Amino acid sequence: MAKGLTKRQEMILQYVLDYVQREGYPPSIREIGSHFDIGSLRGVTVHLDALEKKGYISRSNTPRSIKVTHPQYQASNRVAMVPLVGSIAAGVPIHAQEHVEDLIPVPSEMVHRIEGAFLLRVKGDSMSGEGIMPRDLVMVKPQRTANHGDLVAVLLGEEATVKRINYAKDGVKLMPSNPAYQPIDVKQEDATIIGKIVGLLRDYEGMAF
Asked: Choosing from 126, 128, 141, 196, which is the catalytic residue?
């Protein structure tokens, strides 16, 4: 047991740590209450107040503001476990269990303040002109809209592709950066933006993640 904590306080602290490592951001008070079957938000905040008073966490008035500050747990805060998403079915949440192939440890700074970040494995070399190579993992910030020229992940049927998005009078084009490939003309009803690319991971040893 962590020094000075009750069993319930220790369990809540561990839940916060595990949640941050898995999702890259802290749980809400409501999520903590649901997980531990605590019937009121006040019942959760009593435990969080105690953890804060004992120097294990800090909080602010913003949502999802729990931060583990005790030196004993600082190393675990430097890494976030981000889901690697495989095949995607239209209409099913990205983080649904059947989509997640693995959980990949990444520096927590990469997902700082990005709620629901996930990774996609790049297939093919159509974006090699931007330094995005086959089997790279791209970090995706979930969002359903994008600006002209954004680097995005787009769902075409049940296949996710990474391209620059180009809005023109004659429609939407998904632009590769490798001149060996042609732009993809799409109808808005046939394509779904699932996120904006905000980072990249590469294994220089040539080993699969």
From this structure: 126
Residues of the chain with CATH 1.10.10.10: 7-73
Query: Which of 69-73, 79-83, 189-193, 202-206 comes out lowest in average pLDDT?
Result: 202-206
Q: Which of 104, 99, 137 has the alpha carbon at shortest distance from 23?
A: 104
- Does domain 79-201 fall under CATH 2.10.109.10? My reply is yes
Q: Where in the chain is CATH 2.10.109.10?
A: 79-201
CA distance 99 to 96: 6
Catalytic status, residue 54: no
Which tokens sit at 60?
């602010």
Catalytic entry in 108, 141, 163, 196 = 163
In the residue annotation, 163 being an active-site residue is answered as yes
